[in-house]
Design goal:
This protein is α/β, with parallel strands linked by helices. It has five helices and four strands. Strands 2-1-3-4 form a four-stranded parallel beta sheet, sandwiched between helices. Helix 1 links the parallel strand 1 and strand 2. The longest helix has 13 residues. The relative contact order is 0.15.
Length: 134
């Protein structure tokens, strides 16, 4: 059995050969789960982490500032954000119109996912009609 994969294509990515990180913004349990899964990194340039734990004392301005900093980091390809936190900064989330980094709204332990609030899903639905799936 032969493979069409050559040594030069092994390990390449969709991001021009550079791997990208995931960032996460959520409550302590959500972020800790992802950190235990191995996504935690500290930027070599800025010495800032790719995660933010949000609790009752976290300022809205800190959430928004962190989210915006993730948007402009060239080492981040996906931002995972708990949907209830995305609701707090909905205008900023909806203002992001680029494909990278992709923004994925996720549920948390105390706040279930609501598809009607997900701005990315709403945009995707607007791109297709029911006839496209027949």
């Amino acid at each position: 059995m032969t493979s069409n994969t050559t040594a030069s294509t092994v390990g390449t990515s969709l991001f021009g050969g550079k791997s990208k990180l995931m960032a996460v913004i959520g409550d302590e349990e959500t972020v800790t789960g992802f950190l235990l899964g191995g996504i935690g990194e500290i930027s070599a340039k800025t010495r800032k982490p790719n995660f933010l734990i949000v609790d009752k004392n976290t300022k809205l301005s800190d959430i928004e500032e962190t989210f915006k900093s993730f948007l402009i980091r060239d080492d981040i390809g996906i931002i995972l954000i708990s949907q209830y936190i995305a609701e707090m900064i909905r205008g900023t989330v909806e203002g992001h119109d680029k494909s990278v980094p992709a923004i994925l709204e996720i549920p948390s332990k105390e706040h279930p996912y609501d598809a009607s609030k997900d701005s990315v899903l709403r945009r995707a639905r607007g791109m297709f009609s029911a006839d496209d799936f027949k």
